[in-house]
Give the backbone structure.
Amino acid sequence: MPHQASAPEHRTSTTERGSFAHARCTCGWAGPARRSRDKARTDAEQHESAV
Ligand SMILES: [Zn+2]
């Protein structure tokens, strides 16, 4: 399958739902729901730097 890269891209974004926000990534990862968007963004940054 030529479309499957061995190292998928990690593009994170944050999604807000009500008073909660969580980070998600194009690789399928999703962070826990946070009460603040700042924390969700921190989750995203840690995910990107941890890979
Ligand atoms: Zn990822």
About this structure: Residues 12-50 form one domain. The beta strands are 12-17, 20-25. The chain has a mean pLDDT of 89.
